[in-house]
Amino acid sequence: MSADQPERTPESYRDLPASGSDRFRTLLKRAVGRRCPQCGSKGIFKHFIELKPRCPRCNYRFDREEGYFLGGYALNVFFVGLIPLLLLVLAFIYTDYSWVTLEIIFIPLAILLPIVLFPYTRTFWMLIDLTVDPTEHSEKQLRSGQMNKPQ
After folding, report:
1. Quick check: 32 and 117 in contact, CB under 8 A?
2. Which run of H or of E encompasses 13?
3. Which residues contact residue 129 at a Cβ distance below 8 angstroms, ignoring those fewer than 6 apart?
């Protein structure tokens, strides 16, 4: 690092817009791409399903409190129920497939869809959280340990 350039801290890599439609668009692109919501880094998953505790680039803590990703699980359950139901209704309306054919299509779909959607519902949950609470106030409280202390 040269003398004229300041040393970058992990937090300095965070480039999430403060508010507005730019923030939402940025969060949406990062959620779809399974990227860090704060800096857009790619390597936030250990495996296809397992999320790392922190972003390797900007050190953003993903699991911000106990039970944080319960909303992500709820999103997964919602979409895993909604998508096959809508597809099944469309199959009934627009095709003349037999029950056996529909079972051959929809049983594997019902088994695989929760696994495929799981990492995306986690990143979408972070999108929802950072849209509803656009400030980093709760993150600063978490770092200082004030969030779990009784008032």
Report:
1. no
2. none
3. 64, 68, 71
Q: Provide the whole-model pTM.
A: 0.76
Does residue 132 register a pLDDT over 60?
yes
CB contact burial 22-53 (16+ within 10 A = b; e otherwise) = ebeebbeebbeebbbbbbbbeebeeeeeebee
Rounded Cα distance, 37 and 63, in Å: 12
pLDDT digits (tens, 9 = 90+) for 107-130: 999 999 999 999 999 999 999 988
Please tell me the predicted confidence (pLDDT) of residue 6. Answer: 58
Q: Which strand (E) or helix (H) includes residue 7?
A: none
* Residue 142: both structure tokens together: 């978490």
Produce one character per residue of 90-101: b if its CB has 16 or more CB atoms within 10 Å, e if not: ebeeeeeeeeee
